[in-house]
Amino acid sequence: MTTTALHTLEAQVREQVAAYCETNQVPGFIAGVYHAGAQIVVAHGTANVATAMPMRPDTGFLFGSVTKVLTTSLVLQQVERGLLDLDTPVVKYLPEFAVTVPGAADKILVRHLLSHTNGIDADLYFPDAEGRDALATYVDGLANSCGILFEPGEQVSYSNGGMILAGRLLEVVTGVPFPELLERDIYTPVGMRDSSTSAEQAILRNTAVGHFPDLETNAAVPTRMFTLPDTWGPAGGTPIGTIPDLLAFGRTHLAGGVSPAGVRVLTAESTALMQQVTQDMDSPNVPPIGMGWVLYPFGDTTVLAMSGASPGGVSILCVVPEHDLVFAAFGNTPGAIMLQDQLLQWIVREHLGVAIPALITESAAEIDLTPYVGTYRSEQLRIDVTIVDGQLEERMTYEPADESQERIFTAFAGGMTSAPPQRYVPVRPGLFAPAGYPPAAFDGYLRLLLVSYHDIHDGRARFHNAGGRLTRQAE
């Protein structure tokens, strides 16, 4: 990239970030772009409104679910070394692994954990355990707390439980606790010098915290929870780092597994495997899934992506192999995801010159809504779908299993444990858009706002998919 192009890119990103943050009360935001040998990092605003600490290019933040791509990379390292096999049942390595459905765990292969096709119903399972035995505690609890949503390989549903189970697999086959393994085999060889695995480490340096809008004033209020329990480490509950560190990790995947420092982290075969489609639901709101990466089609260009929600914040990492580009960002309010989508689309469309076709080109005429009506459930979540004024209306309710689960989830969600009713309009049979949104809103990352229904039998949909997560029609 020329010096002029680099300066133009930086100025455009800085302008968009400042305008969005000031208009939408986002305290702070960091974004970085690596492209064709050049790199920029833009920081704006405040990392923590309680301390007025500024957001800087080297400010750390909770990675959230971006960690899942790091965890996947660790698993494939062990596959390369012969300690794990992708097509072997998980129970061979973890005989204690079980769920509430007898025999269901025996069918889950290692590859199902990495491709979100395992069916484990543990999306909101938050056991409160810390320390070296945290992941073992998580696995032990699955047997009494969590069932399955579908047969392995049958569907795609974003899986925190699968990644946490993968983290425990790593501990068993390597004999090294997950946080230490992450530091040794990813942070160090990639050159992620400012990344850590705990709040105790992060507090020693410049670190941002998340914020939630005050319900009365809409002003940003700091989160009361920085990290999730250690049980969620491999899914994104505890790892912390910076935008330059994520760019270095993304560049490693651009370079066939070789870090910017020239250290081989993964084989070229493993990095290619992560980028291959393992499952495609053929639904606009559910992009094809690889291993670790979600493969977003932007016209003829594929964007490898993973975003990460943290308590009061949101991160994203995108790799565009066809254009030698990495994009990473963090904003310290949940609404910053809109800015991340705006920047991603601008970079792809304007900076790279890639045409992004409209995802939704027309709306359906009148269709029969009755197959989609009903109550859909997953672990501690209930979605009631009814017909109101000729539209589908959804009501989502969180139903905590116990006081501990309620306490952790409530803090994670900033006190918002239920959502107001949302109306949906049909795009086509089985696919709906939230009412009031222009069709162009779904062209980029926010296609996840669309809702789809799957496996219609005897006049009823079996599954509801929102945000990549399945709930199942209650019997």
What do you see in this structure?
With 475 residues, the protein is an alpha+beta fold. The chain folds into two domains: 1-357, Beta-lactamase, CATH 3.40.710; 370-473, no CATH class. The chain has twelve helices and 19 strands. The chain has helices at residues 3-24, 67-80, 90-93, 110-114, 134-145, 160-174, 178-190, 199-202, 243-254, 268-274, 336-351, 403-412, and strands at residues 28-35, 38-48, 53-54, 61-62, 211-213, 220-222, 240-241, 294-298, 301-310, 313-320, 325-331, 374-378, 381-388, 391-398, 422-428, 431-434, 451-457, 460-466, 469-473. The strands form four sheets. Strands 12-13-14-15-16-17-18-19 form an eight-stranded antiparallel barrel. Helix 1 (3-24) packs antiparallel against helix 11 (336-351) and helix 5 (134-145) crosses helix 6. The longest helix has 22 residues, at 3-24. The radius of gyration is 21 Å and the shape is globular. The N and C termini lie far apart (57 Å). The model has no long low-confidence stretch (mean pLDDT 95).
